[in-house]
Write a structure and sequence with these properties.
By secondary structure, the chain is an alpha/beta fold. Helices cover 38% and strands 11% of the residues. The protein has ten helices and nine strands. Helix 9 links the parallel strand 8 and strand 9. Helix 2 packs across helix 5. The strands form three sheets. The chain has a four-stranded parallel sheet with strand order 2-1-3-4, with helices on both faces. Strands 5-7-6 form a three-stranded mixed sheet. The N and C termini lie far apart (50 Å).
Length: 336
């Protein structure tokens, strides 16, 4: 699309000339740069956002991801070339709070449509431990009737104070569906000529996510333990959704080293709660997980936070990897 041709700044043009203006990571088969495709050009911050854009946009969008396959999203630093791509795009789809350099670049860009996934569902704070039952609903009370501490909410009950909040909402199929619906509406508004197709594609994606949610509910219904151990606290929303407890070696930042006290605490937890497996990730070093597993006589396995698809992923897209995660969880939790 890009009928609103924008003038790139002199600085951006210089950077483009030096670096070469090509798509850094095109999620679609078209390798043209954002702004040159004749379609609705969407720059997505990382894989879960790019996946939504592709599924909802279909043939009408060209999607460029700022995060390369295999790159840890938390570590991304925006380049001059990517800044230029943002200036030429029709829309940016990102998740505020996950990638600070992306937040800054999009905030400073002149792009007309900025879609923050964190504004489309309720965010919560999670630490090294998360879960303890079904996620609270719009009333924001937990299973004990305690009020949620979030104070800044919109008319839909969504908290938009992102500081300290857990951004890993895509690992809960229900929350991911809420985000999908919001992205679909934003696409319809920004590109009204194709609104009917965006609406249809969004409905199909939401149904697929509802089916995935049901697979997790039924697949994890009969288990021998509720506790699972991960390298970093990426699965708090998933744990809450299905009545599990995630115990993470590190916090929300995968690069944080655990304290000696935390390691000792986890050794006790794994023994007391019948934990069989320590999970590690495809994009983060497995050293700490394997050390803990070796010290406690436990197995290791992959639980993928689906931050990117690589040759090492257990599937070719979000749904396949999430179903692989379900299989791994069922085995670790003794589900029958």
């Amino acid at each position: 699309m890009n009928v609103r041709r924008r003038h790139i700044s002199a600085v951006a043009l210089t950077a483009v000339a030096a670096l070469g203006f090509g798509t850094l990571t095109a999620c679609s088969t078209d390798s043209s740069a954002a702004g040159d495709t004749g379609t609705f050009d969407v720059v997505a911050s990382f894989y879960p956002m790019a996946f939504l854009a592709e599924r909802i946009g279909g043939e009408h969008v060209h999607v460029t991801s700022l995060t390369q396959p295999g790159q840890e999203p938390h570590d991304l630093e925006i380049s001059a070339r990517q800044t230029a791509q943002l200036e030429e795009a029709d829309a940016a789809l990102y998740l505020k709070g996950l990638q600070p350099s992306v937040d800054e670049a999009i905030g400073q860009s002149p792009i007309a449509t900025k879609i923050d996934a964190a504004e489309l569902t309720a965010l919560e704070e999670h630490g090294t431990e998360a879960g303890h039952g079904e996620e609270h609903g719009d009333g924001h009370e937990d299973e004990h009737g305690h009020e949620d501490e979030h104070a800044h909410e919109d008319e839909h009950g969504h908290d938009h104070d992102h500081e300290g909040a857990d951004p890993h909402i895509w690992l809960d199929p229900v929350k991911y569906a809420e985000v999908a619906e919001g992205v679909g509406k934003a696409f319809q508004k920004a590109d009204p000529d194709h609104a009917a197709d965006y609406r249809k594609n969004t409905a199909t994606l939401v149904k697929d996510l509802e089916a995935l949610d049901e697979k997790f509910r039924t697949g994890l219904a009969n288990r021998t333990t509720d506790v699972f151990v991960t390298t970093h606290a990426a699965f708090g929303y998933l744990a809450e959704r299905y009545g599990l407890t995630e115990e993470a070696i590190s916090g929300l930042d995968p690069d944080t080293e655990p304290s000696g006290a935390r390691v000792k605490e986890l050794q006790k937890i794994t023994k007391d709660d019948g934990v069989t497996t320590v999970f590690y990730e495809t994009l983060v070093s497995d050293k700490t997980a394997k050390t803990l597993a070796g010290d406690t006589g436990l197995k290791t396995d992959v639980l993928d936070p689906v931050e990117g698809i690589t040759d090492h992923s257990r599937g070719e897209d979000y749904f396949q990897v999430m179903e692989a995660n379900l299989t791994a969880l069922r085995t670790a939790l003794g589900a029958r």
